[in-house]
């Protein structure tokens, strides 16, 4: 099985850097500092017009968790249709009920939208907030999810490597397991070799300074020191590095 590196992008510039670095698939977001939100249509269309990347678009209207109101879900469905109509190759999403179980109805509705456009349905790291990872993945398989992104229910994927390995062994023939969070050129091969998965998700993050972030007594900083006046970008060099080691 061919090894795949999916790059987590927060902008059109990130997508171009990923493409220049040799990536073939990206997850396209906005607001990565909030965990990734729905990207703009302009970001998607420019990416599809100027690269050959497979693009999986995030559908997420806000930060925090994954238990959505009916109003939020209405917006998410509309976003999903617009993204698929404008060339997205699939969507990443996640729906949980208030008890940490898969929200079956919302998940099924989103899958139906994706499949109507022959796209890939990806359940993102909302999976890492479920009560029972085995029951949850079996539900996702039954619903028709193509791929699940997970860190093994731990902050970083290397910390959850045993669960990732177990999920691959038990369910890898029925659903794709994509490991993400803290994956880079130094540990990607170890993750693949120890778990049996063949694809990883990496941010390949670097920082760029914006001197107007903090002025006088006003600050628009979102990053911690020493990056309080920076914003994050995908590094072409880090993309090249992780792809090379694989």
Quickly count the helices.
8
Report the β-strand fraction as a percent range: 15-25%
How does the helix and strand content classify structurally?
alpha/beta
Percent range of helical residues: 25-40%
Strand order of the largest sheet: 1-2-3-4-5-6-7-8
Bulk shape: globular
In whole angstroms, how far apart are the ends?
A: 12 Å
- What Rg do the Cα atoms give? 18 Å
What is the element string, with H for helices and E for strands?
EHEHEHEHEHEHEHEEEEEH
Provide an overview of this structure:
This protein is α/β, with parallel strands linked by helices and 246 residues long. The chain has eight helices and twelve strands. It has helices at residues 12-20, 41-50, 70-85, 104-116, 133-143, 161-171, 188-195, 236-245; strands spanning 4-9, 25-28, 54-58, 90-93, 120-123, 147-150, 176-180, 199-202, 205-209, 214-215, 218-219, 230-234. The strands form three sheets. The chain has an eight-stranded parallel beta barrel, surrounded by seven helices. A two-stranded antiparallel sheet has the order 9-12. The longest helix has 16 residues, at 70-85. The model has no long low-confidence stretch (mean pLDDT 98).
In short:
This protein has helices spanning 12-20, 41-50, 70-85, 104-116, 133-143, 161-171, 188-195, 236-245; strands at 4-9, 25-28, 54-58, 90-93, 120-123, 147-150, 176-180, 199-202, 205-209, 214-215, 218-219, 230-234. With 246 residues, the protein is of the alpha/beta class. It is globular, with a radius of gyration of 18 Å.
How is the topology of this model organized?
Layout: E1 4-9, H1 12-20, E2 25-28, H2 41-50, E3 54-58, H3 70-85, E4 90-93, H4 104-116, E5 120-123, H5 133-143, E6 147-150, H6 161-171, E7 176-180, H7 188-195, E8 199-202, E9 205-209, E10 214-215, E11 218-219, E12 230-234, H8 236-245
Parallel strand pairs: 1-2, 1-8, 2-3, 3-4, 4-5, 5-6, 6-7, 7-8
Antiparallel strand pairs: 9-12, 10-11
Helix pairs in contact: 3-4
